[in-house]
Amino acid sequence: MPELRRDPVVGRWVIISTERARRPSDFNSQPPKLRPGPCVFCEGQEARTPEEVWALRPEGGPANGPGWLARVVPNRFPALRIEGDLDPTGEGLYDRMNGVGAHEVVIEAPVHDARMERLPVSHLAAVLLAYRERILDLAKDPRIEYVMVFKNQGEAAGASLEHAHSQLIATPIVPMMVDEELAGGLQHFRIKHRCIWCDIVRQESQGGGRVVLENGSFIALAPFAPRFPFETWILPSDHRSAFEGMSEQALTPLAAILSETLSRMSSTLGETPYNLMLHSAPLRASRLDHFHWHLEIIPKLTRVAGFEWGTGFFINPMPPEQAAKHLRESTVGVKKAP
Amino acid sequence: MPELRRDPVVGRWVIISTERARRPSDFNSQPPKLRPGPCVFCEGQEARTPEEVWALRPEGGPANGPGWLARVVPNRFPALRIEGDLDPTGEGLYDRMNGVGAHEVVIEAPVHDARMERLPVSHLAAVLLAYRERILDLAKDPRIEYVMVFKNQGEAAGASLEHAHSQLIATPIVPMMVDEELAGGLQHFRIKHRCIWCDIVRQESQGGGRVVLENGSFIALAPFAPRFPFETWILPSDHRSAFEGMSEQALTPLAAILSETLSRMSSTLGETPYNLMLHSAPLRASRLDHFHWHLEIIPKLTRVAGFEWGTGFFINPMPPEQAAKHLRESTVGVKKAP
């Protein structure tokens, strides 16, 4: 059983998972080799995954068979497990609990060599629908406080399988980074009675040169203080705290701006590895005036080293105004039909 | 001029540095190739670096010539610059200031292919002395609030030059991570009137299986909630808040335990890349009852991916009790003469 442990000084939780690697020799600095298909995530290989928990089959058809656009299965090597009780215990100064939660894989396309930014917008909207449906379902479990949706594209960004996929990890604790955003948002709201992300959207729309794209419902922008070169955030233009509260209709313009943003990154930077993370309000307090859901995309272009790990400061050699300009002026992505 | 910018939500500062890379094509996911010597850091090549700010020449000799054991020079491509005023300014919601600070390189040995853990203990003590002397000197500049000492070993850990070196970055702001440790330490102290790291040292010494080494003055341990496999901390056994307050005498047992810890890591994991970070009290409040300086060593064995970047949670497949056991039972390092 994995275990959740809390650092007694800073309160950071870690997942101690013993099921993936045990011996020192199992830690190999060599990246995993990504293999050509067909793989366990390919259409026709459904029997090789755990039983699906969600799928979109536009033409219908039985579960765990072919004919799907997007499909969600439990992770075979989960970081957290759905069985059991949290059973929080102390050990002197320290706190731990059982690693209860869920870890699922969203297979984004039936073919092996798809890439998220090359999917048609309607297909990408189905992937976003998978995120929403799984969050809504996992929220029914009272032990779950948060669902983090993320994507690792490329082995340098942490992917161990080539087939296009995202992941959901449902945790019994609201993660530290979301907590920090909640605290920052609340502090601003208490003083100004406004959502800080709404203020950011307003200020960026009015100028400053950091907007990448706007489509009426969403905005893609380079944040003022990005940790990484070409870091890009996508936010709903109007106040929305919970991603899972989005209507199915609203997922289409979101898919459109996400697709266009990723395409422009690709045409500007090449098919670079990246991480994509969804920050939404905690499940048990999902309608908040002081939190605004958003996607964060961080291309993997620089190395995080001792200074960053030691300070929490990041050194970013690309001013966001220049990054946004490059992405705005990139036109390759625009050609793709919606 | 580099610029410091603050994220308006979470308060994280980033350094926007435009002097290293500008065009999208300058960001190459390929790691830098480490080159064989002689390099600019080798003995005999002193004229190729900026003028030294400190050096230890046991036999004497003029500055910027050969005969040194350890040598400190300004970084030729500094993340922060020593010239100018901070000049903090606002831009709507946002805050920025000039990137004033210092960035220095500690060249750890005159020969090209040295590795920190293979240096004799007396030589490593000279490197630690360089850290201390530079912190004490940089502290005289009233604009500087903090000095982060760190080392990136191996290109996967962010090193761009092979020759053994550490770095110091002096910042006009106390870094977020140190602030979080200060806040956690203060919270514990307010309730218990004890330093939390002193409590950790006491609890670990009494059992739990996470001690790697103890030598009377220092302890090396696997922390209870490590972010990374084989993450190891070294702390003074007695309460000390500021590294630069250590006597020269005390640096020898510190060099001994650091050398032995790194050697055991090497013999357990191979010559793995790692980051080493020094957390010391802020310069302007260096004598604190609630802070305890420490070294953190994080081998680069796993990839940080979307889940970690999105949550601040880390997934660690190596329980610290097992990591400490492997390092305790490793004996190769022990053979080295002190």
What's the gist of this structure?
Two copies of one chain form a homodimer. Helices cover 24% and strands 22% of the residues of chain A.
SSE layout and pairing:
The structure is a homodimer of 338-residue chains.
Chain A: E1 3-6, E2 13-16, E3 54-56, E4 70-74, E5 89-91, E6 94-98, E7 102-107, H1 121-138, E8 146-153, E9 165-171, H2 176-192, H3 196-205, E10 211-214, E11 218-221, E12 232-236, H4 251-269, E13 274-279, E14 294-299, H5 306-311, E15 314-316, H6 320-329
Antiparallel strand pairs in A: 1-2, 1-6, 3-4, 4-7, 5-6, 7-9, 8-9, 8-13, 10-11, 11-12, 12-14, 13-14
Please provide a written account of the structure:
- The structure is a homodimer of 338-residue chains.
- The first copy, chain A, is 24% helix and 22% strand.
- In chain A, the strands form 2 sheets. A 10-stranded antiparallel beta sheet of chain A has the order 3-4-7-9-8-13-14-12-11-10, with helices on both faces. A 4-stranded antiparallel beta sheet of chain A has the order 2-1-6-5, with no helix packed on it.
- In chain A, helix 1 (121-138) packs across helix 4.
- The first copy, chain A, is built from 6 helices and 15 strands.
- The first copy, chain A, folds into 2 domains: 3-12 and 35-171, HIT family, subunit A (2-Layer Sandwich), CATH 3.30.428.10; 176-335, HIT family, subunit A (2-Layer Sandwich), CATH 3.30.428.10.
- Chain A is of the alpha+beta class and 338 residues long.
- Chains A and B meet through strand 1, strand 2, strand 8, strand 9 and helix 2 of A and strand 1, strand 2, strand 8, strand 9 and helix 2 of B.
- Strand 2 (13-16) of chain A pairs parallel with strand 15 of chain B.
